[in-house]
Amino acid sequence: MTDGTAPPPPHPAGPAAALAHAHPGDGHGPGHGAGGLDMAGMLLPALAALVPALGYLLLVRRAHRRGPRREWSAWRSASFLAGCGLVAAAVLPPLAPWAHGDFRGHMAQHLLIGMYAPVALVLGAPVTLLLRTLPGARARTLTSLLRSRPVRVLTHPVTALLLNTGSLAVLYCTPLYGAATAQPWGHWLLHLHFLAAGCLFAWVVAGPDPAPARPEVPARLVLLGAAIAGHAVLSQLMYGGFLIDIPAPVGQVRGGAELMYYGGDIAELLLAGAVVATWRPGRAGPARKRPVRARSGQEASPRAWPARVRSGAHGPPAGEPLTDADGARRSDAQAA
Fold this sequence. Notes:
Elements: H1 15-20, H2 39-66, H3 74-91, H4 95-101, H5 103-123, H6 126-133, H7 136-146, H8 149-154, H9 157-172, H10 176-180, H11 184-206, H12 217-240, H13 250-277, H14 307-310, E1 322-323, E2 329-330
Antiparallel strand pairs: 1-2
Helix pairs in contact: 2-3, 2-6, 3-5, 4-5, 5-11, 5-13, 6-7, 9-11, 9-12, 12-13
């Protein structure tokens, strides 16, 4: 779809206007029609959203039994369940049939699955909850996995940015979107990619769960700013019809661009708020005192020794420390 006009700013009415003018029966090229889904097509998506929610609640119950004095945060549970609810809303009627026949519905699905749901799921801190409920040996194995080289590469800020934002340019500026939506399994592959890439980006930027070599908050805000700029540029190109390859009517593409422009900004502001909420800037304080040396023939008091020496540890810990959802440093031994 090409349109030689310059890309004007999206309609000031925002995403509500695009939704108000949507007609599920429009269709967009090779995608499926807007007819109702069969029972199997409704049951599988419902289970995909329900099973993680039930598993999370079971882990919360186990955590309460193992440590009744350390109750799991109710708001984290509510956040994770809200994320599962957003996924269910995206893959079930009435949104799912609309998304199969209208590009605006597809974009609404993308926002829910790839931007809003990941923020809620990640803020639920499922990895920290899992570490609290696993036996010691398995918890140490999971901690070692989080510190492994493949996970470090996958969770690198540049990797997360490319998978989350860069992949959208590949999807909408090449024939990939048309090819993916031509088959039923293509829709589900897109959903899985949106969810996985969104959760990865939210985890790297604002996740409370342990993560290897997570950058400082200012660097994460810069990363988030790059993602915001990428979404804005792509939505403007989409609205003007430049450099994109989307087999859909012009009105649908422009409506999808409006949703992406305004709805994406809201999601990224929520993510920025989550980043700032966890920011604990270092305060300039008095210089740390060195341990008092003992006089000749005497031993220094253990209170004057560094904490790692008092505990019998020597040298730096194996790998960088991981930070859990409560902001505490976790070592290999503490992971149990």
